[in-house]
Amino acid sequence: SKQVVSTPSRWGHRSANRLCVCVVSVFPFVQAGRCLSRRFCSFVMESSTTNIPRRSEAQLAPQGPVDPTRPRAHGRSQPLPVDYEFPILYKSDDYVVIDKPFDLRLDGAFETTIEKIIQRQFPEIPKFRWIHQLDYATSGVQVVGLTRKGAAAACKLFEGRKTVKQYLAVVDGWIPFATDTGAPVHIIHEPIYEPTDNSFRMEIGSPEHPGKDALTHVSVLCNGHLLSNGRPVSKVLLRPFTGRRHQLRLHLKHIGHPIVGDATYSTDYTSYRMMLHAYRLHLPFTNDPLTFETADPFSKEMQITEINTNVQDVLQIQTVTSSS
User: Fold this and answer.
1) Are 152 and 125 within 8 A, CB to CB?
2) In this structure, are residues 133 and 33 in contact, taking their beta carbons and an 8 Å threshold?
3) pTM (predicted TM-score)
4) 279: helix, coil or strand?
5) Distance (Å, rounded) from C-alpha 82 to C-alpha 4?
6) Closest Cα partner for 136 from 245, 215, 252?
């Protein structure tokens, strides 16, 4: 079945933005999730929209055969079990932090979503508040608000770009440990443009379509080969300084090293998952800063042939740069 979204007219976009401001001013709690206020406004503006079928990620390219010998508990070839529960990284009165599986949607009319699983896992909690979200195919640290005050405080950090986000990825080809100038961090500073043709893919900006500023730091941890098919890959640590849609995926494709299993920005349709994982998240609250970290899900995906001996230095550089 086709997935249909409402695409506001030019007038609709302007009016929706004005409505967002009005809603926030009348109902301050809406600030606890800017994405939620925009969803609400989009719903209200339905009368000025046109329904256009939107291509989902799976529709952009045919899915090739999946290796049946690959061990996995869930993913593109096998759905999550009906009694699945999230690994909990942290829980307090204000937040629950989960280790999100790959290929799982936030909410919507689907059999399995983050919303449905977390409601079943914590039936005593009356309401969950979305603070940020990961792409459907991305796994890792996902923070969910449990109180209005907590969600608002965390959203303020995300909107002000105060958070420190680090991702692990396995990418095609070998990336040098250092740049041509000897720097241990590769810097990708390329704007990202969102096409207006309702395409799922984002694009690197151009003079005709400048897009929005986007900055990513890439640190290479090791080089090697995938155990599944022997092709050369690198494992990298990624630090986005901006939060553009598909930023990490598009930036890595731009430098010629797309993420393994990214069916949107590469021709890899056989991997059982996209190998991008939200590895670490730091929330610098003034009184009680919080840092969440998961295990490396790609530790058994590749045979390592060369390790970056400056890995600790790279991690320190990433942390120092992130907080500057």
Assistant:
1) no
2) no
3) 0.76
4) strand
5) 27
6) 245
Contact 218, 238 (CB under 8 A): yes
Q: Are 286 and 196 within 8 A, CB to CB?
A: no
Q: How far apart are CA 285 and CA 146, in angstroms?
A: 17
Task: Indicate the average pLDDT of the chain.
Answer: 79
Out of 94, 99, 103, 135, which one is annotated catalytic? 135
Tally of CA atoms within 13 A in the half-sphere of 303 that contains its CB: 8
3-state helix, strand, coil in the chain (%, to 5): 25, 30, 45
Euclidean distance between CA atoms 199 and 55, whole angstroms: 7
φ, ψ (nearest 5 deg) of residue 97 = -115, 125
Identify whether the C-beta of residue 291 lies closer than 8 Å to the C-beta of residue 280. yes
Query: How many H-runs (helices) and E-runs (strands) does the chain carry?
Result: 6, 15
State pLDDT tens for residues 95-133.
Answer: 999 999 999 999 998 889 999 999 999 999 999 999 999
In b/e form, how buried is each residue of 76-97, taking b as 16+ CB within 10 angstroms?
beeebeeeeebeebeeeebbbb
107 is catalytic: no
Residues in the chain: 324
- Joined together, the tokens standing for residue 246 give 């598909």
Return the SS3 of 146.
coil
DSSP string, 197-264: S--S--EE--SSS--B--EEEEEEEEEEEETTT--EEEEEEEEESS--TTHHHHHHHHTT-PBTT-TT
Q: Indicate whether 312 pLDDT > 70.
A: no
